[in-house]
Design a protein that fits this description.
alpha/beta; two-stranded antiparallel sheet; 8 helices; 18% strand
Length: 324
């Protein structure tokens, strides 16, 4: 039985949000919930509206270090303000210009871009699970906007709604929701996080979401269990909803680009000895292409993924300690 935490009580007592209209004309976007409350499922309609908004031309491809990236962060932090999650305390002093959710880090000596991760947490009593997705994309190239609907507005939107869901249904483990910057520039946001995590406590698992909305065949891959075989029985215990198929792979060393072990933000966790599961789809015609627009995602598949990931997180919350 889950005990009601002090945070949950405060959330129920004090947090509420006005309902706003959905749309892409401005900083609007998905409608807000009236209050933080336990619900049976993640809100897939809201998740889809987040993708529609973040993959609109207004955000100009969400390139790191641009005004469009700042607009993206304003959108995400405004929705986090009303999610029931709370900011994850930074390990280093931060500029006064940033919100409590935003963590600036060095992007490296070879760039002047400002790297800003967005980090939220739903407190718990056990060790920490980090669920991540990168919010940056490729920006504008040759006069064309690379909107990155699947890569990775899809993971970002799912993560945003997952934070809201977990805030209403707290787990035993503390869950950090990491919206990483500058993945497209070499996984720099996740590298900075692993070097200096927010908050305190051991991180025992990373669940990374990158490209999870576009598959005509309905196939979602879970990559990482070849490296961390103890995770597979937990994944296999979760019912897969109609509309998607779960396959394992893309984690065999020596297979070149077919090995996704170091392809996204789970890689710094793996290098640090932290188990990971990376959920993603096969490359498609829209991969790093201007055609990666909202109109080309696969909504039924994406809804199924949105129903599946909360169950995965809950399964690891219940059984991860035993799997170790």
């Amino acid at each position: 039985m889950r005990r009601i935490s002090p945070f949950e009580l405060l959330a129920i007592c004090f947090l509420s949000a006005a309902v706003t209209a959905c749309g892409t004309g401005g900083d609007g976007g998905a409608a807000e919930a009236d209050e933080v409350a336990a619900v049976a499922e993640l809100d897939a309609d809201r998740m889809l509206e987040h993708v529609r908004e973040l993959a609109s031309d207004r955000y100009e491809g969400r390139l790191t270090g641009t005004p469009a990236a700042e607009r993206t962060r304003r959108y995400l932090t405004r929705h986090l303000d009303k999610s029931g999650a709370v900011p994850c305390m930074p390990s280093r002093p931060q500029p006064d210009s940033l919100s409590a959710w935003e963590h600036m880090a060095s992007a490296g000596e070879d760039t002047d871009a400002a790297l800003v991760n967005i980090l939220a947490v739903v407190p718990g009593e056990g060790p920490r699970i980090v669920v991540s997705a990168h919010y940056d994309h490729l920006g504008v190239r040759g006069g064309e906007v690379y909107n990155g609907a699947d890569d990775n507005a899809s993971g970002t939107a799912l993560l945003l709604e997952l934070a809201r869901y977990v805030a209403g249904n707290p787990l035993g483990h503390e869950v950090v929701f990491a919206f990483f910057d500058y993945e497209e520039g070499g996984l720099r946001g996740s590298r900075a996080f692993v070097e200096a995590p927010c908050g305190e406590g051991e991180i025992v698992l990373n669940i990374n979401l990158d490209m999870v909305s576009r598959s005509e065949e309905g196939v979602l891959f879970a990559s990482g269990t070849r490296h961390w075989p103890e995770l597979r029985p937990v994944l296999e215990s979760v019912d897969v909803p109609d509309g998607m198929h779960l396959e394992y792979g893309h984690d065999e060393p020596g297979t070149g680009s077919d090995d996704w072990t170091f392809a996204s933000d789970h890689a710094p966790f793996h290098r640090a000895g932290i188990p990971f599961v990376y959920f993603g789809v096969e490359d498609h015609d829209g991969y790093h292409d201007p055609s990666d627009d909202f109109e080309h995602i696969t909504p039924a598949f994406y809804r199924a993924v949105g129903a599946f990931i909360p169950r995965v997180l809950e399964a690891f919350d219940s059984e991860f300690d035993a799997a170790q």
